[in-house]
Amino acid sequence: MGVSLKDVAQRAGVSVKTVSNVVNDYPHVTPAMRARVQQAIDELGYRPNLTARHLRKGRTGIIALAVPELGNPYFAELASAVIDAAARHHYTVLLDHTAGMREKEMLVCQGFQTHVIDGLILSPIELENQDLHGRTDTSPLVLLGEREYDAPYDHIAIDNVAAARSAVRHLIAIGRQRIAFLGARAESARQPAHLRLRGWREELSAAGLPHDDSLVAPTDGYGRADGAQAMATLLDRGVRPDAVFAYNDLQAIGAMRVLGERGLRVPQDVAVVGFDDIEESRFGAITLTTVAPDKQAIARQAVNCVISRLTDSAEAEPRRLRPGHDLVVRESTLGRHQ
Amino acid sequence: MGVSLKDVAQRAGVSVKTVSNVVNDYPHVTPAMRARVQQAIDELGYRPNLTARHLRKGRTGIIALAVPELGNPYFAELASAVIDAAARHHYTVLLDHTAGMREKEMLVCQGFQTHVIDGLILSPIELENQDLHGRTDTSPLVLLGEREYDAPYDHIAIDNVAAARSAVRHLIAIGRQRIAFLGARAESARQPAHLRLRGWREELSAAGLPHDDSLVAPTDGYGRADGAQAMATLLDRGVRPDAVFAYNDLQAIGAMRVLGERGLRVPQDVAVVGFDDIEESRFGAITLTTVAPDKQAIARQAVNCVISRLTDSAEAEPRRLRPGHDLVVRESTLGRHQ
Q1: Residue of B nearest to A255 (CA)
Q2: Is the CB of A76 less than 8 angstroms away from the CB of B97?
Q3: pLDDT digits 0-9 by tens, A129-164
Q4: Which domains does chain A have, with CATH numbers?
Q5: ipTM of this predicted complex?
Q6: DSSP string, A249-276
Q7: Residue A1 and residue A3: Cα distance in Å, rounded?
Q8: SS3 breakdown of chain A: % helix, strand, coil, rounded to 5?
Q9: Residue A115: closest C-alpha in chain B
Q10: Do B116 and A112 make contact, defined as CB atoms within 8 angstroms?
């Protein structure tokens, strides 16, 4: 027979009610009491019946997370962090990827598995304001990422303009003047790169450098092959940057591959900065300088937003949260430490 | 108002029953008829009510997938493939990661979110035979990966011994004789690398080469840092292989980073082969030769197994399926094409 609340209460020398308060994450339990009960829980191997607990509250204990692609390590790392953050609140995560397609994003947003989901965290690429305004599903929705919306939903994103400016500022500080931007889409209302592109422009202007649009290389997608192709196209056009700021690490890695193939040295001939700080960036032949968004904070805030909408703040004003970011400087701009 | 079955039937010029047969994936519909109905569905933007359809059959339309870690691109790529394969059968995927911990694997296996899950696909690391035999949950369970079990569940894995042998054979063919194996665990009953290690030994024997156990480098985990550390330890011990066969691509990539730091050239001084064919392997400064498991086939077979257990073959004998694999030869063994 399993361990009961009563067993835990006896072991901890407290009332069953106190154990219940701890297990259910209710407030008004002192940290000392919480630790004492937790110790008894751990010693006895007590497992609360989470399903029953969620069902009592009319919930399933499942949060959906929809990202553009799991094949992109940034989203895989973010998904890992969300799964862990959700687990700390006894939630599990239903994960889906949208391939960045508007139709799939709308489908997810309009009511993806509504019978089993308490809330949704969505990282959209193509979704429009009107799609969000047309949403009829009433479960909590939290938006992640660079797109800006005028819609009544919580939105979590780092300050992409400031982050891009810090990357460009670093390149200028090491003496670079012809800094290419890799990974813009063709200009449109749906320019996912617009904030990072704005940061690139603003920082060049602040330094008194021209922003030469021939240095902006559009890509069709967000992968290594897209970065490689954009870099090759730039070089084939005779454009010769002394630095590259890429929309993300994958594109930067693809670009570095092409620079190597063309006999250009990183960073001596071309310094490279990426964005995302995926683990891969730390282990290449040339480690990558990159903007590191605080993925743990993004995940934690996203889960907290969903849960607080489910509990005490369903009607609160939509929040705009800004997790932090760092510039992590590595060999692709500073060279290898000899 | 939405598009109905009747609208589709009128557009396609067929009966409502025929449209229903197509939408529900029933057999006995000719490909031509299926195409005709599908065209009408696409033109009208008809969306079948999948939830209702699953619920009519007493199902939720959700398959759980539990992998050791999403941060490992192999599992992220596999998860993508499973999500896509499931979507083709109108299933969505509840994804969880177990961190390769036995307790988490047991929890998942014993009845993870049973109220919302039709079946489970699990890639275990530490799970034991006895854990599987003790399983009381009756929903279909499909096992993935290298561990071998004597348990009544479908199991899908490539032929790891043959795959490892092909990697070692290639290294011998290019003249290497001191081939290190990176990524074994300390010897134990739970040696996840045992089949690849066996392939390494068998192929060396077949070539009349000794298998020098000082060339086997154990690691604590499966990541880039583990491969880097194992490579550094080997070199620090004065062991000087002319080739490395790594348990996976991540470890191979970590090892290549250390070889570069020590001034050893890949492949001239040390040739390197990995395992998994993650996309990262195609874009490093030195592209990686690797064993490529057919991830699409693994995903498709896993989803098919779950679904067929739910429908017509609940009582069939457990299956052992062997998806294919290839050796993909790149610069880390053949050098760069000049």
Answers
A1: B283
A2: no
A3: 888 887 877 889 999 988 888 888 999 999 999 999
A4: 1-38 (1.10.260.40), 58-158+294-324 (3.40.50.2300), 160-293 (3.40.50.2300)
A5: 0.77
A6: HHHHHHHHHHHHHTT--TTTT-EEEEES
A7: 7
A8: 45, 15, 40
A9: B51
A10: no
